[in-house]
């Protein structure tokens, strides 16, 4: 397994800086204590989702009798769709109704730390698919441990980004955040094509055959 690719893919998909405007919007009426609790719960939940996906994702798709090659093609397509969304300066996992759902939860006094802030804005199907695909590439227990450790890295990055959300918004502005999201989308698109091609070759080995001219 290429040790660094999963981390690059995760940081591109999760992209906490791209979710900062949503965090500011949802927590604008929160007290300092509420905001701190939201940051902590969101960061920890993101890390847990990533670690659990790495540990148990393969077992779940095996339980349903899904071949990894098929899952890899589907996951690659999902990542490609997410990257196209990011190229339009939108979070990879965001849907139009997520903002309204979050607003409704804020109005009702409910916590938005897990839904929709962490799931699906930070982590969702694309994140889970990525972890499952890379978990299959591990050959040693320490590689799987590293994948789980990446959940801690993402949690720390999310914690820092949300804690410094006001400064990030002030320094980068919406234009800067949009540019960063598009750059992450471009990186994710390249990784998605690579995963998609690898899955298609597993399904159709003839694609890997070289033609002799």
Extract low-pLDDT stretches.
none
The string of secondary-structure elements, in order, is: HHHHHHHHH
Strand tally: 0
**Please, what is the average pLDDT?**
88
Shape: globular
Percent helix? over 70%
Terminal CA distance reads 33 Å
Q: What profile does the largest beta sheet have?
A: none
Q: What is the structural class?
A: mainly alpha
Rg, please? 18 Å
Q: In percent, how much strand structure appears in the residues? A: under 5%
The helix tally amounts to 9
Polypeptide structure, described:
This protein has 213 residues and is an all-alpha fold. The two termini are 33 Å apart. 38% of the residues are buried. The protein has helices spanning 4-14, 16-26, 32-63, 68-87, 96-107, 113-122, 125-136, 141-163, 165-203.
Write the layout of secondary structure elements.
Layout: H1 4-14, H2 16-26, H3 32-63, H4 68-87, H5 96-107, H6 113-122, H7 125-136, H8 141-163, H9 165-203
Helix pairs in contact: 1-7, 1-9, 2-8, 2-9, 3-6, 3-7, 3-8, 4-7, 4-9, 5-6
Brief digest:
The chain has 213 residues and is mainly alpha-helical.
Keywords:
single chain; 213 residues; mainly alpha; 9 helices; 0% strand; globular
């Amino acid at each position: 397994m290429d040790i660094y690719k999963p981390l690059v893919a995760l940081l591109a998909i999760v992209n906490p800086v791209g979710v900062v405007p949503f965090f500011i919007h949802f927590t604008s009426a929160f007290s300092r204590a509420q905001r701190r609790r939201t940051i902590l719960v969101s960061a920890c939940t993101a890390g847990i989702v990533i670690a659990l996906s790495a540990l148990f994702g393969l077992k779940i798709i095996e339980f349903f009798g899904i071949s990894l090659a098929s899952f890899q093609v589907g996951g690659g397509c999902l990542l490609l769709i997410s990257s196209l969304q990011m190229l339009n300066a939108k979070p990879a996992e965001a849907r139009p109704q997520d903002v309204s759902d979050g607003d409704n939860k804020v109005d009702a006094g409910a916590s938005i730390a897990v839904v929709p802030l962490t799931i699906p804005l930070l982590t969702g199907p694309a994140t889970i698919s990525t972890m499952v695909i890379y978990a299959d590439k591990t050959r040693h227990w320490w590689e799987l441990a590293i994948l789980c450790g990446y959940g801690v890295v993402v949690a720390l990055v999310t914690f820092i980004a949300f804690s410094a959300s006001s400064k990030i918004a002030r320094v980068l502005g919406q234009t800067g955040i949009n540019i960063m999201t598009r750059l992450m989308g471009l990186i994710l698109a390249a990784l998605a094509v690579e995963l998609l091609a690898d899955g298609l070759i597993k399904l159709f080995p003839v694609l890997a055959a070289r033609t002799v001219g």
